Amino acid sequence: MAYILGIETSCDETAASVTKDGREVLSNVVYSQIDIHTLYGGVVPEIASRKHIDKIIWVIDEAIKQAGITKEELDAVAVTYSPGLVGALLVGVSAAKALAYGLGKPIVPVNHIQGHIAANYIAHKNLEPPFVCLVASGGHSHILHMKDYHDFEILGQTHDDAAGEAFDKVARVLGLGYPGGPKVNKLAEEGDCEAIKFPRPKSGFDFSFSGVKTAVINYVHKEEQNGNEINKADVAASFQKAVCDCLVENTIEAAKSVNCSKIALAGGVAANTFLRKMMEDAAKANNMEFYCPPIDLCTDNGAMISCAGYLNYIKGVRGGLELNAVPQLRLD
User: 28, 200, 289, 302: most buried, per Cβ within 10 A?
Assistant: First the structure.
Protein backbone atom coordinates (compact mmCIF):
# COMPACT_ATOMS: atom_id res chain seq x y z
CA MET A 1 0.00 0.00 0.00
CA ALA A 2 1.31 3.45 -0.92
CA TYR A 3 0.01 6.94 -0.19
CA ILE A 4 0.99 9.35 -2.97
CA LEU A 5 0.54 13.11 -2.81
CA GLY A 6 -0.02 14.57 -6.28
CA ILE A 7 0.60 18.28 -6.99
CA GLU A 8 -0.64 19.99 -10.17
CA THR A 9 0.10 23.63 -11.11
CA SER A 10 0.71 23.52 -14.86
CA CYS A 11 -1.76 26.29 -15.75
CA ASP A 12 -4.37 28.09 -13.66
CA GLU A 13 -5.54 25.44 -11.18
CA THR A 14 -3.68 24.91 -7.94
CA ALA A 15 -4.43 21.31 -7.07
CA ALA A 16 -3.32 18.54 -4.72
CA SER A 17 -4.61 15.07 -4.00
CA VAL A 18 -3.76 11.97 -2.01
CA THR A 19 -4.51 8.55 -3.44
CA LYS A 20 -3.97 5.08 -2.05
CA ASP A 21 -2.32 2.74 -4.53
CA GLY A 22 -3.07 5.15 -7.32
CA ARG A 23 -6.73 4.40 -7.91
CA GLU A 24 -8.43 5.13 -4.59
CA VAL A 25 -8.84 8.90 -4.18
CA LEU A 26 -8.69 9.98 -0.54
CA SER A 27 -8.78 13.71 -1.28
CA ASN A 28 -8.83 16.00 -4.30
CA VAL A 29 -8.52 19.73 -3.62
CA VAL A 30 -8.60 22.27 -6.47
CA TYR A 31 -8.32 26.03 -6.23
CA SER A 32 -9.51 27.52 -9.54
CA GLN A 33 -8.45 30.90 -10.90
CA ILE A 34 -11.16 31.08 -13.56
CA ASP A 35 -12.85 34.15 -12.06
CA ILE A 36 -9.57 36.07 -12.10
CA HIS A 37 -8.55 35.23 -15.66
CA THR A 38 -12.06 35.77 -17.01
CA LEU A 39 -11.43 39.49 -16.52
CA TYR A 40 -8.60 39.29 -19.08
CA GLY A 41 -10.23 36.88 -21.54
CA GLY A 42 -7.64 34.16 -20.93
CA VAL A 43 -4.89 32.94 -18.64
CA VAL A 44 -2.29 35.56 -17.70
CA PRO A 45 0.85 33.54 -16.84
CA GLU A 46 2.29 36.00 -14.31
CA ILE A 47 -0.98 36.25 -12.41
CA ALA A 48 -1.39 32.47 -12.50
CA SER A 49 2.07 31.97 -10.99
CA ARG A 50 1.45 34.48 -8.21
CA LYS A 51 -1.87 32.87 -7.26
CA HIS A 52 -0.20 29.46 -7.17
CA ILE A 53 2.32 30.87 -4.68
CA ASP A 54 -0.54 32.21 -2.55
CA LYS A 55 -2.50 28.96 -2.48
CA ILE A 56 -0.07 26.04 -2.90
CA ILE A 57 0.64 25.44 0.83
CA TRP A 58 -3.02 25.67 1.78
CA VAL A 59 -4.06 23.28 -1.01
CA ILE A 60 -1.40 20.71 -0.04
CA ASP A 61 -2.26 20.91 3.67
CA GLU A 62 -5.97 20.60 2.92
CA ALA A 63 -5.43 17.57 0.67
CA ILE A 64 -3.46 15.75 3.37
CA LYS A 65 -6.00 16.75 6.04
CA GLN A 66 -8.96 15.52 3.98
CA ALA A 67 -7.15 12.26 3.28
CA GLY A 68 -7.07 11.56 7.01
CA ILE A 69 -3.34 10.90 7.14
CA THR A 70 -0.25 12.76 8.31
CA LYS A 71 2.51 14.12 6.10
CA GLU A 72 4.83 11.50 7.54
CA GLU A 73 2.60 8.70 6.23
CA LEU A 74 3.12 9.78 2.63
CA ASP A 75 5.25 7.38 0.61
CA ALA A 76 6.12 9.86 -2.14
CA VAL A 77 5.39 13.32 -3.53
CA ALA A 78 4.40 13.38 -7.20
CA VAL A 79 4.35 16.61 -9.17
CA THR A 80 3.67 17.85 -12.70
CA TYR A 81 6.95 19.07 -14.16
CA SER A 82 5.99 19.25 -17.87
CA PRO A 83 4.42 20.63 -20.02
CA GLY A 84 2.77 23.89 -18.97
CA LEU A 85 3.42 27.52 -18.08
CA VAL A 86 6.97 27.67 -16.79
CA GLY A 87 6.25 29.97 -13.86
CA ALA A 88 3.24 27.95 -12.80
CA LEU A 89 5.12 24.66 -13.06
CA LEU A 90 7.99 26.04 -10.99
CA VAL A 91 5.68 26.74 -8.06
CA GLY A 92 4.48 23.14 -7.91
CA VAL A 93 7.92 21.65 -8.49
CA SER A 94 9.50 23.87 -5.82
CA ALA A 95 6.80 23.02 -3.28
CA ALA A 96 7.13 19.31 -4.03
CA LYS A 97 10.91 19.36 -3.65
CA ALA A 98 10.73 21.28 -0.37
CA LEU A 99 8.10 18.95 1.08
CA ALA A 100 9.83 15.78 -0.09
CA TYR A 101 13.20 16.96 1.23
CA GLY A 102 11.74 17.91 4.60
CA LEU A 103 10.00 14.56 4.98
CA GLY A 104 12.78 12.46 3.51
CA LYS A 105 10.41 11.12 0.85
CA PRO A 106 11.09 10.52 -2.86
CA ILE A 107 10.03 13.01 -5.52
CA VAL A 108 8.20 11.50 -8.50
CA PRO A 109 8.05 13.66 -11.68
CA VAL A 110 4.89 13.32 -13.76
CA ASN A 111 4.15 14.45 -17.31
CA HIS A 112 0.88 16.37 -17.47
CA ILE A 113 -0.36 14.31 -20.44
CA GLN A 114 0.38 11.10 -18.53
CA GLY A 115 -1.74 12.53 -15.73
CA HIS A 116 -4.74 13.17 -17.97
CA ILE A 117 -4.60 9.59 -19.26
CA ALA A 118 -4.36 8.30 -15.68
CA ALA A 119 -7.70 9.96 -14.82
CA ASN A 120 -9.27 7.02 -16.65
CA TYR A 121 -7.61 4.55 -14.28
CA ILE A 122 -9.28 6.29 -11.34
CA ALA A 123 -12.70 6.32 -12.97
CA HIS A 124 -12.48 2.76 -14.34
CA LYS A 125 -10.77 0.42 -11.89
CA ASN A 126 -10.74 -2.39 -14.45
CA LEU A 127 -9.09 -0.40 -17.24
CA GLU A 128 -5.65 -1.62 -18.19
CA PRO A 129 -3.58 -1.19 -21.35
CA PRO A 130 -3.61 -1.78 -24.22
CA PHE A 131 -6.06 0.89 -25.39
CA VAL A 132 -6.13 3.92 -27.67
CA CYS A 133 -6.55 7.28 -25.95
CA LEU A 134 -7.50 10.65 -27.39
CA VAL A 135 -5.91 13.38 -25.26
CA ALA A 136 -7.49 16.72 -26.14
CA SER A 137 -7.05 19.93 -24.19
CA GLY A 138 -6.21 23.61 -24.59
CA GLY A 139 -2.62 22.83 -25.47
CA HIS A 140 -2.63 19.25 -26.73
CA SER A 141 -4.40 17.00 -29.22
CA HIS A 142 -2.88 13.53 -29.46
CA ILE A 143 -4.02 10.01 -30.25
CA LEU A 144 -1.88 7.57 -28.27
CA HIS A 145 -1.71 3.80 -28.44
CA MET A 146 -1.14 2.84 -24.81
CA LYS A 147 0.59 -0.50 -25.19
CA ASP A 148 1.39 -0.53 -21.47
CA TYR A 149 1.33 2.03 -18.67
CA HIS A 150 4.70 3.44 -19.75
CA ASP A 151 4.90 2.16 -23.31
CA PHE A 152 2.99 4.14 -25.91
CA GLU A 153 3.04 5.17 -29.55
CA ILE A 154 1.81 8.47 -30.97
CA LEU A 155 -0.66 7.62 -33.73
CA GLY A 156 -1.85 11.15 -34.45
CA GLN A 157 -1.38 14.73 -33.31
CA THR A 158 -2.26 18.27 -34.28
CA HIS A 159 -0.21 20.11 -36.89
CA ASP A 160 -1.19 23.52 -35.50
CA ASP A 161 -3.86 24.55 -32.97
CA ALA A 162 -4.98 22.15 -30.27
CA ALA A 163 -8.72 21.44 -30.11
CA GLY A 164 -9.20 23.38 -26.88
CA GLU A 165 -7.27 26.34 -28.25
CA ALA A 166 -9.60 26.45 -31.26
CA PHE A 167 -12.65 26.39 -28.94
CA ASP A 168 -11.25 29.31 -26.93
CA LYS A 169 -10.55 31.42 -30.03
CA VAL A 170 -13.98 30.75 -31.52
CA ALA A 171 -15.58 31.64 -28.18
CA ARG A 172 -13.69 34.92 -28.27
CA VAL A 173 -14.87 35.86 -31.77
CA LEU A 174 -18.44 35.00 -30.75
CA GLY A 175 -18.11 37.23 -27.69
CA LEU A 176 -18.64 34.39 -25.23
CA GLY A 177 -15.65 35.08 -23.04
CA TYR A 178 -13.38 32.76 -21.05
CA PRO A 179 -13.25 29.83 -20.55
CA GLY A 180 -14.30 29.25 -24.13
CA GLY A 181 -14.80 25.48 -24.33
CA PRO A 182 -17.68 25.13 -21.86
CA LYS A 183 -19.36 28.27 -23.21
CA VAL A 184 -19.28 27.04 -26.82
CA ASN A 185 -20.53 23.63 -25.67
CA LYS A 186 -23.47 25.19 -23.83
CA LEU A 187 -24.43 27.60 -26.62
CA ALA A 188 -24.17 24.82 -29.22
CA GLU A 189 -27.01 22.97 -27.47
CA GLU A 190 -29.34 25.67 -28.80
CA GLY A 191 -28.05 25.57 -32.38
CA ASP A 192 -28.21 23.46 -35.54
CA CYS A 193 -24.93 21.62 -36.04
CA GLU A 194 -25.68 21.19 -39.77
CA ALA A 195 -26.48 24.87 -40.41
CA ILE A 196 -23.01 25.87 -41.61
CA LYS A 197 -20.49 23.66 -43.40
CA PHE A 198 -17.09 24.30 -41.86
CA PRO A 199 -14.01 22.41 -43.17
CA ARG A 200 -12.79 19.11 -41.73
CA PRO A 201 -9.13 18.83 -42.75
CA LYS A 202 -7.69 15.33 -42.69
CA SER A 203 -4.11 14.07 -42.86
CA GLY A 204 -3.89 10.46 -41.81
CA PHE A 205 -4.69 10.31 -38.10
CA ASP A 206 -3.36 13.84 -37.53
CA PHE A 207 -5.42 16.95 -36.83
CA SER A 208 -5.40 20.54 -38.06
CA PHE A 209 -7.80 22.93 -36.35
CA SER A 210 -6.35 26.22 -37.56
CA GLY A 211 -8.39 26.06 -40.78
CA VAL A 212 -11.76 25.48 -39.14
CA LYS A 213 -11.02 28.20 -36.57
CA THR A 214 -10.13 30.63 -39.36
CA ALA A 215 -13.24 29.60 -41.32
CA VAL A 216 -15.42 30.52 -38.34
CA ILE A 217 -13.68 33.87 -37.89
CA ASN A 218 -14.03 34.67 -41.62
CA TYR A 219 -17.70 33.63 -41.60
CA VAL A 220 -18.49 35.89 -38.65
CA HIS A 221 -16.59 38.85 -40.09
CA LYS A 222 -18.22 38.46 -43.52
CA GLU A 223 -21.72 38.31 -42.05
CA GLU A 224 -21.02 41.37 -39.90
CA GLN A 225 -19.69 43.34 -42.88
CA ASN A 226 -22.79 42.46 -44.88
CA GLY A 227 -25.01 43.60 -42.01
CA ASN A 228 -26.49 40.13 -41.51
CA GLU A 229 -27.67 38.90 -38.15
CA ILE A 230 -25.51 36.02 -36.93
CA ASN A 231 -27.06 33.00 -35.28
CA LYS A 232 -24.28 32.40 -32.77
CA ALA A 233 -25.81 29.13 -31.59
CA ASP A 234 -25.69 27.72 -35.11
CA VAL A 235 -22.09 28.88 -35.52
CA ALA A 236 -21.11 27.28 -32.21
CA ALA A 237 -22.92 24.03 -33.00
CA SER A 238 -21.52 23.77 -36.53
CA PHE A 239 -17.99 24.52 -35.38
CA GLN A 240 -18.24 22.03 -32.54
CA LYS A 241 -19.54 19.34 -34.89
CA ALA A 242 -16.67 19.91 -37.33
CA VAL A 243 -14.03 19.56 -34.59
CA CYS A 244 -15.68 16.55 -32.96
CA ASP A 245 -16.10 14.81 -36.32
CA CYS A 246 -12.33 14.99 -36.78
CA LEU A 247 -11.54 13.88 -33.24
CA VAL A 248 -13.92 10.93 -33.29
CA GLU A 249 -13.24 9.71 -36.83
CA ASN A 250 -9.47 9.81 -36.42
CA THR A 251 -9.57 8.08 -33.04
CA ILE A 252 -11.76 5.24 -34.29
CA GLU A 253 -9.65 4.78 -37.43
CA ALA A 254 -6.44 4.86 -35.40
CA ALA A 255 -7.79 2.20 -33.03
CA LYS A 256 -8.69 -0.01 -35.97
CA SER A 257 -5.20 0.42 -37.42
CA VAL A 258 -3.64 -1.19 -34.33
CA ASN A 259 -6.43 -3.75 -33.85
CA CYS A 260 -7.45 -2.22 -30.54
CA SER A 261 -11.01 -2.60 -29.27
CA LYS A 262 -10.74 -0.17 -26.32
CA ILE A 263 -10.74 3.63 -26.64
CA ALA A 264 -10.56 6.34 -24.00
CA LEU A 265 -10.91 10.11 -23.75
CA ALA A 266 -8.74 12.40 -21.63
CA GLY A 267 -7.99 16.10 -21.18
CA GLY A 268 -10.08 19.21 -20.74
CA VAL A 269 -11.90 18.84 -24.08
CA ALA A 270 -13.05 15.41 -22.89
CA ALA A 271 -15.48 17.34 -20.67
CA ASN A 272 -17.36 18.40 -23.82
CA THR A 273 -20.72 16.62 -23.63
CA PHE A 274 -21.17 16.52 -27.41
CA LEU A 275 -17.78 14.89 -27.91
CA ARG A 276 -18.41 12.35 -25.14
CA LYS A 277 -21.71 11.31 -26.73
CA MET A 278 -20.27 11.15 -30.26
CA MET A 279 -17.32 9.04 -29.15
CA GLU A 280 -19.53 6.71 -27.12
CA ASP A 281 -21.88 6.20 -30.07
CA ALA A 282 -18.99 5.62 -32.48
CA ALA A 283 -17.44 3.09 -30.11
CA LYS A 284 -20.70 1.17 -29.86
CA ALA A 285 -21.14 1.21 -33.63
CA ASN A 286 -17.67 -0.31 -34.01
CA ASN A 287 -18.00 -2.83 -31.15
CA MET A 288 -15.40 -1.04 -29.04
CA GLU A 289 -15.27 -0.46 -25.31
CA PHE A 290 -15.40 3.22 -24.36
CA TYR A 291 -13.87 4.83 -21.29
CA CYS A 292 -14.03 8.43 -20.13
CA PRO A 293 -13.40 10.10 -16.75
CA PRO A 294 -16.13 12.12 -15.02
CA ILE A 295 -16.03 15.79 -15.96
CA ASP A 296 -14.31 16.86 -12.73
CA LEU A 297 -11.38 14.57 -13.56
CA CYS A 298 -11.10 15.82 -17.16
CA THR A 299 -9.98 19.29 -16.11
CA ASP A 300 -6.65 19.75 -14.30
CA ASN A 301 -6.60 18.12 -10.86
CA GLY A 302 -4.22 16.55 -8.39
CA ALA A 303 -5.83 13.10 -8.36
CA MET A 304 -4.72 12.32 -11.91
CA ILE A 305 -1.15 13.37 -11.02
CA SER A 306 -1.24 11.22 -7.90
CA CYS A 307 -2.44 8.22 -9.90
CA ALA A 308 0.20 8.71 -12.60
CA GLY A 309 2.72 9.35 -9.85
CA TYR A 310 1.91 6.01 -8.26
CA LEU A 311 2.52 4.22 -11.56
CA ASN A 312 5.87 6.02 -11.89
CA TYR A 313 6.68 5.31 -8.24
CA ILE A 314 6.27 1.55 -8.52
CA LYS A 315 8.27 1.63 -11.76
CA GLY A 316 11.14 3.29 -9.93
CA VAL A 317 10.91 6.74 -11.53
CA ARG A 318 12.50 9.35 -9.25
CA GLY A 319 13.45 12.99 -9.44
CA GLY A 320 16.18 14.67 -7.42
CA LEU A 321 16.46 18.18 -6.04
CA GLU A 322 17.73 19.19 -9.48
CA LEU A 323 14.27 18.53 -10.95
CA ASN A 324 13.19 21.52 -13.01
CA ALA A 325 10.11 22.71 -14.86
CA VAL A 326 10.04 21.83 -18.56
CA PRO A 327 7.41 24.02 -20.25
CA GLN A 328 7.55 22.47 -23.73
CA LEU A 329 5.74 19.24 -24.55
CA ARG A 330 7.70 16.08 -23.81
CA LEU A 331 5.93 12.77 -24.11
CA ASP A 332 9.02 10.72 -23.27
Answer: 302
What span, in angstroms and rounded, lies between the C-alpha atoms of 12 and 7? Answer: 13
- CATH of region 129-293: 3.30.420.40
Q: Which one-letter amino acid corresponds to residue 85? A: L
SS3 assignment, position 159: coil
- Tell me the domain boundaries of the chain: 3-118+297-315, 129-293
User: pLDDT, tens digit, for every residue of 167-181?
Assistant: 999 999 999 988 899
Q: Is the peptide bond before 182 cis (omega within 30 degrees of 0)?
A: no
Dump pLDDT digits (tens) for 278-330. 999 999 999 999 999 999 999 999 999 999 999 999 999 999 999 999 998 76
- Residue 2 burial (CB < 10 Å; 0-12/13-18/19+)? middle
The predicted-structure confidence for 11-23, as pLDDT tens digits, reads as follows: 999 999 999 999 9
- In the CATH hierarchy, which fold is given to the domain comprising 3-118+297-315? Nucleotidyltransferase; domain 5 (3.30.420)
Helices and strands in the chain: count of H runs, count of E runs? 11, 10
